[in-house]
Amino acid sequence: MNKEVLKKYVDYSDEVKKAMEEGRPIVALESTIISHGMPYPMNLETAKAVEEIIRKEGATPATTAIINGRIKVGLSEEELKFMATSKDIIKCSRRDYPYIVANKLNGGTTVASTIITCAIAGIKVFVTGGIGGVHRGAEKTFDISRDLQELANNEVLVVCAGAKSILDIGLTLEYLETFGVPVLGMRTEEMPAFFTRRSGFKLDYEVKSEEEAANIASTKWELGLNGGIVVANPIPEESQMDEDKINTAIKEALVEAEEKGIHGKETTPFLLQKVLEATEGKSLEANIALVKHNAEVGAKIAVAMNK
Ligand code: PSU
Ligand code: MN
């Protein structure tokens, strides 16, 4: 990408600009979780808390978004509030990105489009809650999140709490394997299922520390094995949800989505909202806890990678 051309499109926050100049570790964050993933005011409080955790660990947070067509790397407090409250924000994946930029609109960046922004800005570590994946029934709907292809194609390490069981976790792992994306369990042998620590799917590799994950990523890229890495970091024990309860809520949400003909980009936000209602907000508490935990791990990885 041509640096001069990019200046036309990209704004860095002062904090991120400074960290880049000084060669300090930076951690990217998405904004669809703010605009579409959580209700106000918990979305804003969580976004701020997550940034603070990253600072405390010695890294600089760079929440990404598109605001008035400007590609943002790092948001001011005012911009965070805008992302948390405005109804005028489009859920932005790769195919939405040029339309939103060209027409000076606002985009909440998903995992897919945050990875695109990371590639533009040269950021190697990105923290989120859960990645998108292969949806249940994808053999009929073809619904496979763009997140997986961006992971396959870009040099970025994404810390997440696994994939939600609104998805087909087994097929998601198969897809990542086909496209050469390593999935490292952070102090776990099993792929976590977002709200719960276990999914029943064993991972090939467990890492015991953030340093180990950082070293594997650096090695991959030095070898020219380009593309991303997933670090799957299970939700803390004490914040885990009851497996039966969450699975019942998910099953009901899937049935309702089918009845209502929900499809495409509406699917994930719809399912999340239904699960939230069915669990009387418990799923939101779990979501917040796991994102914070991911921020801590991601910042530690970014710090280790920078050494
Ligand atoms: N999972 C969550 N909360 C979210 C998302 C996923 O628990 O907000 C968002 C992320 O931004 C992810 C996107 O990248 O949903 C995936 O959407 P889709 O399945 O339409 O690709
Ligand atoms: Mn989809």
UniProtKB/TrEMBL annotation:
GO terms for cellular component: cytoplasm. Its EC number is 4.2.1.70. The active site is at 30 (proton donor), 164 (nucleophile). One of its GO terms (biological process) is nucleobase catabolic process. It holds the Pfam family Indigoidine_A. GO terms for molecular function: hydrolase activity, acting on glycosyl bonds; metal ion binding; pseudouridylate synthase activity. Keywords: Glycosidase, Hydrolase, Lyase, Manganese, Metal-binding. Its cofactor is Mn(2+). Substrate binds at residues 91, 111, 145-147. Transmembrane segments: none annotated. Binds 1 Mn(2+) ion per subunit. It catalyses: D-ribose 5-phosphate + uracil = psi-UMP + H2O. It is an enzyme of class 4 (lyase). Homotrimer. PANTHER family: CARBOHYDRATE KINASE PFKB DOMAIN-CONTAINING PROTEIN, ZGC:136858. Catalyzes the reversible cleavage of pseudouridine 5'-phosphate (PsiMP) to ribose 5-phosphate and uracil. Functions biologically in the cleavage direction, as part of a pseudouridine degradation pathway. This is Pseudouridine-5'-phosphate glycosidase. It comes from Peptoniphilus duerdenii ATCC BAA-1640.
